[in-house]
Each structure stands twice: as C-alpha cells, then as structure tokens.
Amino acid sequence: MDYNRTAVIWFGVAVAIVITLAYITTLNSTHIRTVQNTPAGTVGLARPHPPIDRAPGQELPARQ
Q1: Whether pLDDT at 1 is above 60
Q2: How far apart are the C-alpha atoms of 44 and 20, rounded to whole Å?
C-alpha cells in the first residue's frame, strides 16, 4: 500500500511541474499590446456585422 501512495505523490509532483512550466511558457510567448486610440467599449476583435433577418430554422438568405 505504501508503494501506491509513493507513486501517486510522484505523479502529483510531475503534474504540478508540467502545469507550472506550461503556465510560464504561455506567459513568455504572449505579447500583450494596448492601443491608445480606440473608442471606449471596444475590445479589438472583428468588426461588427449586421444581424441576419431570418427565423430559426429558415435558410440563410442568398448573398448578393
């Protein structure tokens, strides 16, 4: 029974090390940039698209 406990402890240590290294690697490769001239409320993602006028289950309108 002591052998199983030791294996579980070593597995937990290995998982903790892997999670820590993944976290550090992610932080090092992430470049956070801020833009100074954006209006309030924007998040910098894709431009907004107008809503599609259709009922649920109805086919999408043809593009013109």
Answers
A1: no
A2: 30
| Cα→Cα distances 49→43, 45, 56, 57, Å | 15, 12, 18, 20
Using DSSP, state whether 61 is helix, strand or coil: coil
Q: Decide if 50 contacts 59 (C-beta within 8 A).
A: no
Amino acid 5 reads R
User: Are 34 and 25 a contacting pair, CB within 8 Å?
Assistant: no
Can you give the residue range of the structural domain that contains 10?
A: 1-28
Q: What is the pTM of this model?
A: 0.43
22 found inside a domain: yes
